[in-house]
Amino acid sequence: MVTIQTYISKNGYDAIVNKHLLANEDFVPIHHSSAKQLGNQQLFTSKGTSLYGTVIISYQHQFLSRFYDWDDVDGIWLSILQAMHDCLNTGIGNCGFSERSMDWQMNRLIEKNPALLVSWYHGFASKQWNDIPIKTTLRFPENLLLNNIIEKGTTYLKFRESLYDSGPSQNINQLINNLKSFK
Q1: What is the pLDDT of residues 109-167, one digit of tens each?
Q2: Pseudo-torsion of CA 140, 99, 134, 168, nearest 10°?
Q3: Is the pLDDT of residue 47 over 50?
């Protein structure tokens, strides 16, 4: 089973950086009743430029990403969608972003049952942290991952459009529609 869940941070950038270790209690899922208020607070404080949180992805109880992998959620979703789109088009998708040196890489495996090898490189959150860059890799059934990314990307898009500043919703929507053509 593929699980993809988007979370919004209860705190802004400085509070997240100062905490060092993050856990479930530092975030709320976007379907939580306080997620919209937290999102609007962050966008208001940052003048519409940042919405901090994370996207947790797992397959059969193995985690590709965790709460530690927080950043601007728009950037995380745009990079996931772009890497998936490029991978389905060319066989390889690679999309990085952020000061935190995070990077998605997806490789299409042509087999009897098509699969995607997805790697998530993460680390170097800040000079004050002594991060060692790590790479997490999982193998996903292609259609299962594609369907879940489309579903959860659409859920995030609806959440993002409900906020006072819809940010890159148009770009997210276009990438989701492009992915639907691969179904």
Answers
A1: 988 899 999 998 876 544 444 556 678 999 999 999 999 999 999 999 999 999 998 88
A2: -10
A3: yes
| b/e 152-175 (16+ beta carbons within 10 angstroms → b) | bbbebbebbeebeeebbbeebbeb
| 93 within 8 A of 78, measured Cβ to Cβ | no
124: left (phi over 0), alpha (psi -120 to 50) or beta: left
The predicted structure's pLDDT at residue 146? 97
Which residues does 91 contact at the CB level (< 8 Å), separation at least 6?
107, 108, 110
- Token pair 């994370």 is at which residue? 54
- What order do you get walking across the sheet with 102-109 strand by strand? 92-97, 102-109, 115-122, 134-141
Q: Is 172 left (phi over 0), alpha (psi -120 to 50) or beta?
A: alpha
Which among 153, 154, 150, 79 has a CA at the least distance from the CA of 119? 79
Q: How far is CA 14 from the centre of its chain?
A: 20
- The contacts of residue 85 (CB under 8 Å, 6+ apart) are 93, 175, 178, 179
Per-residue pLDDT at 95: 87
* Percentage of the chain exceeding pLDDT 70: 86
**Which residue is it, tokens 């088009």?**
89
Local confidence band at 20 (pLDDT 50, 70, 90 cut-offs)? low
